[in-house]
Design a protein that fits this description.
By secondary structure, the chain is mostly helical. The protein has one domain. It is built from 16 helices and three strands. Helix 6 runs parallel beside helix 16 and helix 14 runs parallel beside helix 16.
């Protein structure tokens, strides 16, 4: 039942209750158990995949066999705790500070180029936090969703050209900062995610067509003026010319090893802790960009299908919440989360199988990395909060 004035909170959360009482009540709401359970199960499956893919290699090289099991398990716990905080606060409370979250994200993306930032593998992407690394671009996607949702909610249904220009600027600035790191993969995810939010937000077709044309022209300009790094250009050439044997031996080495690992798994896989390519360290970035190669080799087609099924359940439940909610801002947030998760899964699995260019996008809740795990759990927490506090239209 909705309150007068359009609020979608139940009457039991009226003004008579104190703020702490309302927060506790929010935390105890009946959330989507299917979404919650599938998300936790997905994270657990991902942690076991990492352990299975690295135990033998680590042991053979004098490292702790359970390093990734402990590390990723810790990241999962932190992520679940972050999700609980979002549920405790409620998505409406978080959206009140959507502009502030967006601004803080921009500041962190700018600060990454200062002496505080650290580089690795030719990219300036991290802040050191003791033994851990904080990657602002992982949270920039969610911050962009919150910022766009807050502004679109304030603008309402009326979106003339000047307001669309504001929204485009909001998207363009963080995307350019992330691309400059360079982190082209995350920049692409941000572009796809923000486009989904703008479409659901009611941006007119002619404006979307103009934006698509500008995006195409920007890509042409980047290629024409040689603004891509050498390795990025080689990845694109390697993707287009995968059957060029003279080229593939060097440029497509990582993709070829990944495809070899996946194809060797067959229907049921070679078994956990086995697999020459993955446990032998022949697949580069096998714990992050190409973690799906370990799934395909060690767990086979059925293991990959199970993983894809879990993603399908998570995305379906969030989409279901978006469709059923009567709150426009909540629908915008959920739409952004669906696009973020859906495209990330498609791109990561696609590049591991050679059907998408390599773009360095992690597999949500499976690839190693604390920033990405926490950001994903926060996004799921927002969707759960929307589902629990919004009534169907």
């Amino acid at each position: 039942m909705a309150l007068a004035g359009g609020s979608s909170y139940p009457l039991s959360y009226g003004r008579r209750r104190s703020a702490p009482a309302r927060a506790i009540a929010r935390l105890l709401r009946p959330y989507d158990r299917v979404l919650l359970g599938a998300s936790v199960l997905l994270a657990a499956y991902g942690t076991f995949i990492l352990y299975s893919a690295t135990r033998v290699y680590n042991a053979d090289h004098g490292l702790s066999p359970s390093y990734y099991l402990v590390q990723q398990g810790l990241f999962d716990l932190v992520g679940v705790a972050g999700m609980a905080v979002v549920l405790w606060l409620g998505y409406r409370f978080v959206l009140r500070f959507g502009g502030l979250v967006y601004a803080a994200s921009l500041l962190s993306l700018v600060a990454i180029f200062s002496p505080l930032g650290r580089s690795a593998l030719g990219a300036q992407r991290w802040f050191p936090l003791g033994p851990f690394k904080f990657q602002p671009s992982s949270f920039a996607i969610l911050a962009l969703v919150l910022g766009l949702a807050a502004v679109l909610d304030r603008f309402g249904e009326d979106l003339p050209a000047r307001r669309v220009a504001v929204l485009v600027a909001m998207v363009g600035v963080p995307v350019l900062l992330v691309a400059k790191q360079p982190d082209l993969g995350t920049a692409i995810v941000m572009g796809v995610t923000s486009s989904a939010v703008l479409v659901v937000g009611g941006v007119r077709g002619r404006h979307l067509l103009l934006l698509a044309l500008l995006a195409v022209l920007a890509v042409i300009a980047v290629l024409h003026f040689g603004l891509l790094h050498r390795y990025q250009l080689e990845r694109l050439i390697g993707f287009v010319q995968q059957h060029n044997t003279a080229l593939s031996a060097k440029v497509n080495y990582d993709v070829n090893q990944s495809k070899l690992a996946i194809s060797s798994g067959g229907l049921t896989g070679v078994g956990p802790f086995h697999g020459l390519e993955t446990n032998g360290g022949f697949v580069p970035e096998s714990t992050t960009d190409f973690i799906f190669s370990a799934v395909g080799q060690q767990f086979g087609f059925f293991g990959g299908a199970a993983l894809l099924g879990l993603y399908g359940v998570v995305i379906w439940r969030i989409w279901r919440i978006a469709v059923r909610t009567g709150d426009r801002a909540g629908r915008l947030v959920c739409s952004g989360v669906v696009a973020y998760l859906g495209f990330s899964v498609f791109q990561n699995m696609g590049m591991a199988m050679g059907i998408m260019p390599v773009a360095g996008i992690p597999l949500p809740l499976v690839s190693s990395g604390g920033s990405a795990v926490l950001a994903t759990f926060l996004a799921i927490g927002l969707a759960l909060s929307v589902g629990a506090t919004s009534s169907p239209s």
